[in-house]
Amino acid sequence: MRKVSSLVFGLGVFLFFWLVLPYHLRFHEQFQFFRFGMDYFMDSVMHPEGFSFYLGGFFTQFFLYPWAGALIIALLLVLMQRLVARISYGVPGRVAGRVPGSAHSSAPGSTPGNTFWYPLTFLPSAIVWLLLCNENYMISAVVALLLALWAVDLYQSAGKRKSRIAVFYILQPVLFFLAGGTVLIFTACFLYLEAFRRGCTDAGSTDAESTNSGSTNPESPNPGNTGSQTVCPGTTGTGNTSRWRAYALRVIPSVALVFLYPLVARLFCQYPYEKLLGGIHFYRYYYFSYPMQYIAWALAAAVPLLCRLIPSPGTGRLNRLNPAPKPDRLHRLIPAAGPGRGTRILSLVLWVLITAGTVVGLFRFAGLEKERLFGYDILVYEEEWEDVLQRAQKDPPGSTIEMVAVNLALWKTGRLETEMFHYPQQGPEGLMLPFRRDFVTPLMMSEVYLHLGMVNSAQRNAYDAMEAIPDFQKSARCYKRLAQTNIINGHYLVARSYLEQLSKTLFYRKWAHETVQYLGNDERPEDEEHIAEHPLYGRIRRIRYRDEMLFSPQGLNAMLDVLYRDNRENTMAYAYMLAYTLLAKDLERFADYITLEYPAGSDKPLPVPYQEALVLYWVQNHSSLEGIPWNISGDIRKKLNDFTAAYQQFAGGRPERALKKDFGKTYWYYVFFTKI
User: Fold this and answer.
1) pLDDT tens digit string along 16-58?
2) The CATH number of domain 368-543 is 1.25.40
3) How many CB atoms lie within 10 A of CB 486?
4) Is 353 exposed, middle or buried (0-12, 13-18, 19+ CB in 10 A)?
5) Following DSSP, what letter does each residue of 67-130 receive, concatenated?
6) pTM of the model
7) pLDDT at position 205, please?
8) Between 66-88 and 50-60, two packed helices, what is the crossing angle to 10 degrees?
């Protein structure tokens, strides 16, 4: 039953991240740059917590495929739960001639946990599941927590007192170096596990002399039966004091050392003390703390303690040392409590409460709005234009960065000029975002600038995005874009340096090896003809700026004008220039630009939004459409009259609601009812 519950839990984690938050996993992958090679390995691990960071990056590279990322997270969380359960219920071993795994077998000298509380072993994993819904909580934090639990299990399996103590004091500094602040969990578990062992097993008698009768195996068919508790012979007050003194001598150095390690580490690496103890690579925003992660730490240490201390319902006994003079007789006189009906009901209630709490937490922390934004970004990066538009039709964009993705997809599918106002436009920023000091927005604008032919702007945004990553990591996606822009600009040596780093990765190696062929080698020069024929490099080279010019965020419209006039083949620049003026409600400039491709008196058919903008521009300066120099269809003329009549009819109330049904997809509706 216990193994089945772990399997169900793992399946739930897998399906959640694969089906509900797949783009959260892709978000993680694109802001790390794991490379194979000794240089990267040594650079990663030669500081406290470095091994967790390295291993976390190794796992994160597989998030390029959401199903693989979901599977990895599921396995990690199930392993965490199993380790907590193993710590809570002791380690099977040979005790006093008994067969390992038998009903009387348990960890020597230990007090195994009460299996009634087995559902509690899922709590640390459930909390980490919720934490991973935050896109900035790193996989290295999960790895570090697992290393700490594994160290506890290793210590608990060490056997007799001297072996256990030796193992602990060897593992403690090693764990701090490998997993950083999670050494606190290891030390906390050591304190109470030694407290449970401080009785007769460490007071002169052997470990084998103190055992537990009754089944304590959480996999047993009778889990409610914890059996009689550990009982030790009566001792005098002096003996009890000496045992506590011995306990203090064993554990007090561990508490002092755990706070001393960061001080020593600061002599060799420039990290703040609180980061060395609280986690360097556990949260993406290095300068900010993430207190919720410490809930998982506390539960990982506390759950085994609770399972050992709290009695099962109906027994009324705490797991403690019982100073009875004749333990064998008491074992016979006090029968083990069986799993009554009430106990089973309460156990079921505990399962339900933990499950319900996890589900409610997932609804609260899932971050579906961010998932939608990440989805738009990844679909644009992979040039899945139809998928972008299908997503927009199903769930309309709610932010300017999402609208940027939709408008780019409209252009790439040939629908920007005709269907732009079928979507909830949000002003010029929904077409071309201004620069923002973050590491997400510049990536989206890098895609737009590259397709427009503004190569240097695409390169600058990719570089700025990578340098703005809060935990100072590099990005494989940014390296790929920087290699592309340098190839287009003819900076082949720079491009080669980026490709060499990409060739050290698992999933970008093939692309890097294929791309480097364009750059030639010592025996063969660059293949300029081949580059010119490339569908991306060749096209962007033809439509980019011919002369250097200064980028101006306030003059994007003018920059698009120059880009188009430099190369009339760049129809995207022209369409974006017109769209920018429409979204800015600058009809005067729109009427000026429209004549570049649709001169007055031309029979060339105008897209419907352009006709709507031109008739609105005309009636603002004339009493009727008489004499308008552009080819305006009869349907547009009639629709303008209907819109004007409906607007006047509802002018005293809220006309936008009444007009949305018939005119919500017109440029007129955008002009009158959208604030920019």
Assistant:
1) 999 999 999 999 999 999 999 999 999 999 999 999 999 999 9
2) yes
3) 21
4) exposed
5) HHHHHHHHHHHHHHHHHHHHHHT------TTPPTTSTT---TT--PPPGGGGGGGGHHHHHHHH
6) 0.87
7) 40
8) 140
